[in-house]
Design the sequence.
């Protein structure tokens, strides 16, 4: 039975390995947003042996471009925080995990098998955010503590946000090599095969229908 867990950064390997696919998580502590350009710059620096100006190892990467505003005093505030698609970060995100050993990544959808393998090796998880809850997540962010690389633009900058029980988040990839989406695909394929067999349909056969009268073409068939 899936469990509901409240965790606070920094996370330990024991805490992370205690999570399983389908568990519900609420996180508190510092979270760093990072998208394409942020990943690329961070990996360039790490590849040169340089230290990043922010601490990801004891935090989480969130595939997110928050909508922010700045008040008269210059302080930034989050108005909306929704995830971007995480599958495209599989190559770069996996390298980041190998470099830094981060315990947690957050985003939308899933990440590929390479990320699954690395997470199992180092003890890390991928947490799915819930679609349509960007306004809710913004309310669960207490403040923006810092921002880096504003020269990349507001969406691509690294926003350091302090969250208070941000969630619900679903464990989409656990530290045991399990992926929620892989499990769903397996179940779906079994169910589809059952329906094909019941209907007498051969899945390998193409049932594409070609109309006799094609729009804009002479009637040749």
Sequence:
């Amino acid at each position: 039975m899936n469990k509901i867990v409240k965790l606070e950064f920094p996370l330990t390997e024991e805490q992370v390995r205690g999570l399983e696919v389908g568990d519900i998580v609420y996180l508190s502590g510092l979270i760093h947003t990072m998208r394409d350009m942020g990943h690329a710059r961070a990996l360039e620096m790490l590849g040169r042996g340089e230290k990043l100006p922010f601490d990801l190892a004891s935090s989480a990467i969130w595939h997110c471009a928050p909508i922010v505003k700045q008040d008269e005093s210059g302080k930034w505030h989050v108005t909306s925080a929704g995830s971007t698609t995480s599958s495209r970060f599989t190559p770069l995100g996996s390298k980041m995990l190998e470099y830094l050993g981060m315990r947690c990544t957050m985003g939308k959808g899933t990440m590929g098998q390479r990320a699954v393998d690395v997470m199992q090796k180092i003890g890390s998880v991928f947490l799915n955010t819930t679609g349509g809850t960007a306004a809710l997540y913004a309310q669960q962010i207490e403040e923006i503590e810092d921002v880096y690389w504003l020269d990349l633009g507001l969406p691509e900058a690294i926003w350091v946000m302090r969250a208070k029980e941000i969630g619900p988040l679903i464990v989409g990839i656990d530290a045991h090599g399990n992926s929620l989406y892989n499990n769903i695909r397996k179940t779906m394929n079994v169910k589809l095969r059952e329906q094909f067999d019941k209907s007498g349909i051969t899945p390998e056969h193409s049932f594409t229908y070609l109309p006799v009268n094609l729009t804009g073409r002479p009637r040749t068939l």
